[in-house]
Amino acid sequence: MSTAAPRTAGPDHLWTVDEHLDDILATVRPLEPIELQLLDAQGCVLVEDITVPVSLPPFDNSSMDGYAVRVADIAGASEQYPASLEVVGDVAAGQGDLVHVGPGQAARIMTGAPLPPGAETVVPVEWTDGGLGGGPAAGMRARSLAPEGATGQVAVHRPAAARAHVRAQGSDVKAGDRALEAGTVLGPPQISLLAAIGRGTVRVRPRPRVVVLSTGSELVQPGEELRPGQIYDSNSFALTAAARDAGAIAYRVGAVADDAATLRDTIEDQLVRADLMVTTGGVSVGAYDVVKEALSYAADEDEPGSGVDFRRLAMQPGKPQGFGSLGPDHTPLLALPGNPVSSYVSFELFVRPAIRTLMGLPDVHRPRVRAKLTADRALTSPKGRRQFLRGRYTDGTVTPVGGAGSHLVAALAHADALIVVPEDVESVTPGTEVEVILLG
Predict the structure, then answer these.
(1) Of the N and C termini of the chain, which has fewer Cβ atoms inside 10 Å?
(2) Phi (first) and psi of residue 214, to 5 degrees
């Protein structure tokens, strides 16, 4: 959530990319921690270290289906001279009442079952005749089909060292060890570990709820028929997908027509389920830039510090931007340009870090590397603007994809990186080392 009002500046102030981002990150605060059931916590960030209350495994157990025996009883065993042992019973996984293995004895044991008292090692069933009196066994018959297998004699054809095929108590983690650190994102392996050590709930920062809303009377839902002057709404789909990729729970709202009152009503309705709102379109200087019209004066007299500030940034694409907060909870709102490339680049630079900040992650930025530019000709960039060009990164080199136009959706779909051209650079020749933001 937002706890401080964003900075404001005069209408002629040209914000740098870093100034705008710093303002966002200084305003947005991590969400308050909550206790969640394990599966509900998937994708969330831990806010506490997790200590192991019980060792894993909690007891010595077999890693094979076979026979639990004493080492001395099978020393020197071979197929020609097998060791013949008395089978005194079965030991199954989950069994608590264990048979005792004495000299000259063996117990059938299943994978995961506790090592019974008296036994020192496990021989796989394939090293025995399985109690059938023939050659090496391929496996064990189900107990329900052959209950007599738990008694009788078994021939062991190979020796085994002490504690062979035995998973030692605590060999995974020991009681008192730190299993997971605060700041860990909970994925399937982490949830598995939490369940294995007996944790049913965990304290995390919840995944932020992001509402994505596009504007424009020309926008049509994909799958519907296009009429003259209309285009399909791609931005809201792209940004909703990007928000989910960043770790958020994202809700897409259908495109809102160019009407300020309708937009204000829609945003007000959506605030109840939003930790962050993202709009796309309507932030420039045109006569139908409805987001700017609707929200420039959205400050609530009852909620000091609320409102949205619209800015010009020294960047290409994505010069017009808006940032502020709305409603009683000061829900942050980022207003992005409407051109598809501008919108997506703006999301990567500003919205994704805001989402990751709400999650409480220590590192909110995409990785950046240095790469050698490979291109047919020099790249040009407007002086005083930080340009972000689409590219493909491979083994320390980056190649531009498409042109600089902010409408080139097809080129964007083939890019996995952004090539950064600084404000004071107007031309970048092939072979030059450049900064690259990795998107994948």
Answers:
(1) C
(2) -105, 155
Position of tokens 């491979």?
394
The contacts of residue 222 (CB under 8 Å, 6+ apart) are 232, 233, 234, 237
Hey, what's the torsion of the CAs at 263, 268, 272, 273, to 10 degrees? Answer: 10
**Alpha-helical runs (H) found in 173-279:** 188-196, 235-246, 260-270
Residue type for position 361: L
Give the rounded distance of the alpha carbon of 170 from its chain centre: 29
Q: What is the share, in percent, of the chain residues with pLDDT greater than 70? A: 92
* 278 φ, ψ (degrees, to nearest 5): -130, 125
- Residue that has been written with the tokens 């009002």 in this structure: 5
Task: Give the span between the Cα atoms of 90 and 142, in whole angstroms.
Answer: 12
Amino acid making up residue 235: N
What pLDDT, in 10s, does the model give residues 225-247? 888 988 888 899 999 999 999 99
- Give the span between the Cα atoms of 131 and 155, in whole angstroms: 7
CA distance 65 to 154: 14
Q: b vs e for 356-393, b when ≥16 Cβ sit within 10 Å of the residue's Cβ? A: bbbbbbeebebeeeebebebeeebebeeebbbbbbbbb
Q: How far apart, in whole angstroms, are the C-alpha atoms of residue 155 and residue 84?
A: 5
| pTM of the predicted structure, to 2 decimals | 0.84
End-to-end CA distance of the chain: 27
Hey, what's the torsion of the CAs at 8, 10, 11, 15, to 10 degrees?
-70
User: For strand 83-91 and strand 152-156, is the pairing parallel, antiparallel, or unpaired?
Assistant: antiparallel
**H-assigned helices in 98-247:** 188-196, 235-246
Whole-number Å distance between alpha carbons of 337 and 317: 9
**Residue pair 213/236 in contact by the 8 Å Cβ criterion:** yes
- pLDDT band at residue 405, thresholds of 50, 70 and 90? low
- Rounded to whole angstroms, the Cα distance separating 309 from 15 reads 12
